[in-house]
UniProtKB/TrEMBL annotation:
<dbReference type="GO" id="GO:0016787">
    <property type="term" value="F:hydrolase activity"/>
</dbReference>
<dbReference type="InterPro" id="IPR007709">
    <property type="entry name" value="N-FG_amidohydro"/>
</dbReference>
<keyword id="KW-0378">Hydrolase</keyword>
<feature type="compositionally biased region" description="Basic and acidic residues">
    <location>
        <begin position="77"/>
        <end position="89"/>
    </location>
</feature>
<feature type="region of interest" description="Disordered">
    <location>
        <begin position="77"/>
        <end position="100"/>
    </location>
</feature>
<dbReference type="Pfam" id="PF05013">
    <property type="entry name" value="FGase"/>
</dbReference>
<protein>
    <submittedName>
        <fullName>N-formylglutamate amidohydrolase</fullName>
    </submittedName>
</protein>
Amino acid sequence: MGGLDRDGAPLSPVVLSVPHAGRDYPAALLGALRLPATALTILEDRFVDAVAQGARTQETMLVQRRARAWIDLNRGEGERDPRVDEGVRPHGQPAPSAKVRSGLGLVPRRAGAAGDLWRRRFSGKEVAARIEQDYRPYHAALAAALAAAQARFGVAVLLDVHSMPPLGDHARIVLGDRFGHAAAHRFVARLEAAAAQAGVRTALNTPYAGGHILERHAAPARGIHAIQIEFDRTLYLDAALDRPGAGLPAVVALLQQMIAAAADEALTGDGIALAAE
């Protein structure tokens, strides 16, 4: 996780989270597949961890190593899909979310055009183990990192780093703040300005406004701001969108500028004054 001084206090108000870049595919997962393992890469934010790791200097950073196909950290615990999860009770449950209906729940059911992933349903015990061993520890560590940053600096800023398929002629970076509910706009404006200075077009909340991680951890009224950053994969991957490409250093440099802008806003902007009121 890193980013701490000798007394264990954070060195920066910025916390980085990379929940979807994991490439660790457990044997139990591979044994349940009905598709080639290569089909699962469509669920990955392919090598965006290389962007975040290259950009990080002194920030606390969490990177999920387990693949998203194993468990999706950006879903709520209740977003369990009965079509793949035997632990979901057939009655008394809330209506499935749009993500669950589309096959992208806590345990994903589908991988884009490749279709259904699994040759069997997973037992409730199997899914509960993933929640206990992977999902809850990540969220607990993220909550602790944000609390520590807020305690030291008066403000914490979570940058939740993702990547996306190209959007055609549209933006190359999509920032999400859950339509203003996850972060004060001054932080978004600083990230937009950093991207503009690098000549990269951004969009806000469309088509990605931020998921469960922002919903769960953002608390602007308490000085904890959270922004999701989606990088177009063509910016930093090769032509096949499979391996890091020639554009990686430029995207690393851009994320460094965005991190620096967020930290500067936290330390010199309105955040500290508001936190003290």
